[in-house]
């Protein structure tokens, strides 16, 4: 009992990431699947950033936010996927204490930042549809930059707090994390400390950081729907809704899977891992497709780039 009380986080030098509890033969299949999806994440998001940066016609607030969204998607997938793929092919499946804390920090940073950027995009749509005559006044370059900078600041504050409370606890009971990455819930499960402070910090972050982004998105769309329904022509209503449909799809996919993982009863750990794959890899893979397939400006910019390459060759 005395050893248990004196044990602290400095006694642990590494953790074991269990990953998916499948037959060893299937680890190669998991590696190839992750490699394929992660490759599509890289290709799609780097292409989207490249198109936005090179085409001057896409120098608007919406594409400024979209470019940042692609960078964030690319970043938090990169924080998780490469290490997971290495562990699929490794027998040890370990991650150092510092490596685990770093992975947790950057993942929390980018996932929280994405929530705020999505809220900023909802506000952008709200201004564009509900107050189009003053759009250029409200959505200035300066404001857009401040919104994105504020998103990163909130993500940074959130990740600092989460990492501090999560990795300052004792890990005497176990160092085995039942996940393919350093997930906060699974890290707390192997802690032997009182987690009251951790729970209070999580609730505070949810109340003051996560909840406001959801409120901004919901209120923005309430006003958008009300305004669109007042448009007399069906063509005008269709055009207005198509402007928001891509963003709404991305928001629903991200918040739906994250809510399932962190708000539902953890009765099936393997199902939670699959859901985690959706928001870590599948959502970042689909986001560029959703925005490019339903966006005439992006498709036109892509055609211009391909035509220039064809002309040069």
Automatic annotation (TrEMBL):
Subcellular location field: Cell membrane
GO CC annotations on file: plasma membrane
Keywords: Cell membrane, G-protein coupled receptor, Membrane, Olfaction, Receptor, Sensory transduction, Transducer, Transmembrane, Transmembrane helix
Location (main, coarse): membrane
Transmembrane segments: 28-51, 63-82, 94-112, 118-135, 147-171, 205-229, 241-262, 274-293
One example GO MF annotation: olfactory receptor activity
Top-level taxon of origin: Eukaryota
Xref: SUPFAM superfamilies: Family A G protein-coupled receptor-like
Pfam families per the UniProt record, alphabetical: 7tm_4
Keyword Heme in annotation: no
Domain G-protein coupled receptors family 1 profile residue range list: 44-291
Membrane topology term: Multi-pass membrane protein
Function comment: Putative odorant or sperm cell receptor.
Family named by the database record: Belongs to the G-protein coupled receptor 1 family.
UniProt-recorded name of the protein: G-protein coupled receptors family 1 profile domain-containing protein
Organism of origin: Cervus hanglu yarkandensis (Yarkand deer)
């Amino acid at each position: 009992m005395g050893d248990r009380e004196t044990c602290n986080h400095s006694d642990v030098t590494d953790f074991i990431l269990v990953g998916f509890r499948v037959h060893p033969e299937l680890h190669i299949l998991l590696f190839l699947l992750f490699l394929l999806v992660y490759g599509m994440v890289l290709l799609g998001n780097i292409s989207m950033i490249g198109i936005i940066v090179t085409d001057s016609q896409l120098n608007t607030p919406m594409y400024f936010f979209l470019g940042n969204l692609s960078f964030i998607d690319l970043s938090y997938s990169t924080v998780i996927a490469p290490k997971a793929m290495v562990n699929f092919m490794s027998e040890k499946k370990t991650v150092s204490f510092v490596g685990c804390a770093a992975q947790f920090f950057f993942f929390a940073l980018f996932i929280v930042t994405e929530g705020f950027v999505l809220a900023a995009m909802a506000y952008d749509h709200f201004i564009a549809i509900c107050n189009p005559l003053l759009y250029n006044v409200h959505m200035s370059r300066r404001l857009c930059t401040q919104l994105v900078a504020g998103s990163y600041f909130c993500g940074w504050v959130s990740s600092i707090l989460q990492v501090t409370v999560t990795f300052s606890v004792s890990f005497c009971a176990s160092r085995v994390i039942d996940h393919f990455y350093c997930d906060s819930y699974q890290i707390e499960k192997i802690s032997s400390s009182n987690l009251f402070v951790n729970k209070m910090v999580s609730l505070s972050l949810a109340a003051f950081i996560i909840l406001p982004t959801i409120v901004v998105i919901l209120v923005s769309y309430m006003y958008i729907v009300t305004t669109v329904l007042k448009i007399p022509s069906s063509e005008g209503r269709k055009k207005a809704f198509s402007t928001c449909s891509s963003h709404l799809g991305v928001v629903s996919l991200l918040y739906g899977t994250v809510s399932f993982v962190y708000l539902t009863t953890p009765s099936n750990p393997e199902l939670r891992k699959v859901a985690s794959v959706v928001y870590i890899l599948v959502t970042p893979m689909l986001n560029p497709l959703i925005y490019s397939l339903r966006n005439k400006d992006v498709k036109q910019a892509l055609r211009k780039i391909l035509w220039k390459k064809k002309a040069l060759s």
